[in-house]
Structure prediction request, 282 residues.
Amino acid sequence: MTTTQQDSKSPPGHGGAPLGQPETIKLILERSQRPTRTVPIRRAFLQREVGKSRAKSPGALAALVRRSAKRPLDLYLLLSAVTSGGDFSVTEWSTTWARSVGIFDETAGTAAVSRAWKVLKELNLVTRARGEGGKSTITKLREDGSGRPYTSPGEGTGDPYFQLPYEYWEKGWHNTLSLPGKAMLLIASNQRKLEFTLPQERMPDWYGFSADTASKGIRELMKHGILVQVGDEWFDTLKTRSGRGSRPVYGLWPPFTPRALGEPTTEEEAATEVSSGVGPKD
Prediction:
């Protein structure tokens, strides 16, 4: 028997109506009990280091973007939020995960979630096993796709990671942003500094997807005031007659500003508004 379709942004109904998407995500995030209210994600999810030379290679994110796998990425990020210790696994009904991505029909939701876990399993990001009471147990693996057991990042040197704040879900960005927007948000967060460049022509080599996809994501983040241009960087090049080229320098606005670096000052906020013509938005 299937339930009645419901708007993912509307409050839950009464009686047998399923819990709404925001309420489901709220319960999942509360279950994680993370005191920092952020999700640590290794850089290897975006970009791996291969061989003794530690040459850079696109990570699992590239495969998700190329496959237009928005739903698997949504589930992976939420899984990363709730698996915070022990064996880094969570046992839950498929219908719960389906509601978290806005699907309320039980049959369609179960099938969609199963397909999403299959994609993540093929990328060696998770394992899936039958759990108690008709639930499934999803266990998170290392972000680099090696299939190794997951460990908390930052426990040793040379293990870079960035953090995704819970406001990503609480402010509805998981619904608002497209797949290119989400990908570029993760890449911008991975820079881990207040000001940085995002050379679009290097995206295919560095992150495994096209410059056009990167450009679309950057424009979307700027439209919503998540990413702002704070200046320009000049560099040497033979691609211009003068031998000098420039590229934008960006910054992330709260709540996505790197936590360890603090929030922008009043002076930085004013300078950003002047240079970009875009101020922060709620």
